[in-house]
Amino acid sequence: QVQLVASGGGSVQAGGSLRLSCEYTSNTANKFRIVWFRQAPGKERQWVAALYTGGGSPYYHDYVKGRFTISLDNTKNTLYLQMNSLKPADTAAYYCAAGEQAGSADVPTNYDYWGQGTQVTVSS
User: Fold this and answer.
1) What is the dihedral of CA 32, 33, 35, 41, to 10 degrees?
2) What are the tens digits of pLDDT across the range 21-47?
3) Beta partners for 33?
4) What number of CA atoms fall less than 13 Å from residue 2's CA on the CB side?
5) Distances (CA, A) of 84 to 19, 99, 122
6) Which residue in 92, 80, 43, 83 sits closest to 65, CA to CA?
7) Fewest CB atoms within 10 A around its CB: which of 7, 60, 118, 124?
8) CA–CA gap between residue 64 and residue 83 (Å, rounded)
9) 25 φ, ψ to 5°?
10) 62-104 pLDDT, tens digit each
11) CA-CA distance, 17 to 21, in Å (whole number)?
12) How far is CA 41 from each of CA 17, 44, 94, rounded to the nearest angstrom?
């Protein structure tokens, strides 16, 4: 079982920055995939970035490459998403999620555990 709590959202102007946090807890020693998704009103939930808690390189969707950085602090059990050069198109509720490292990382149904979401609003 994994529990996740997302925070750090807010309202910024285009070109600004935010850092999202996702504190997670697990009752097992198993490693898992931990990711960020986002969803805007009226749109499908879309994958943003992913890490594996056992180590390895991060992965990003093309629409955030060069602007967002995903990182993991294992000592604090916290996942971060540093978002720079924000655009109005980044406006969405952002969710962290966790699941076994199996299947496609960009499919929401492959994740069993979800945080509550944190709202990011980017103004023109």
Assistant:
1) -90
2) 999 998 877 888 999 999 999 999 999
3) 52, 99
4) 25
5) 9, 27, 11
6) 83
7) 124
8) 9
9) -135, 145
10) 999 999 999 999 889 999 999 999 999 999 999 999 998 778 8
11) 13
12) 21, 8, 12
DSSP secondary structure string, 21-47?
Answer: EEEEEESSS---EEEEEEE-TTS--EE
Distance CA 80, CA 19 (A): 7
Nearest to 16 by CA among 118, 88, 119: 88
Using CB atoms within 10 A of its CB, is residue 34 exposed (0-12), middle (13-18) or buried (19+)? buried
Residue closest to 9 by CA, chosen among 105, 96, 73: 96
Residue 91 tokens read as 């406006």
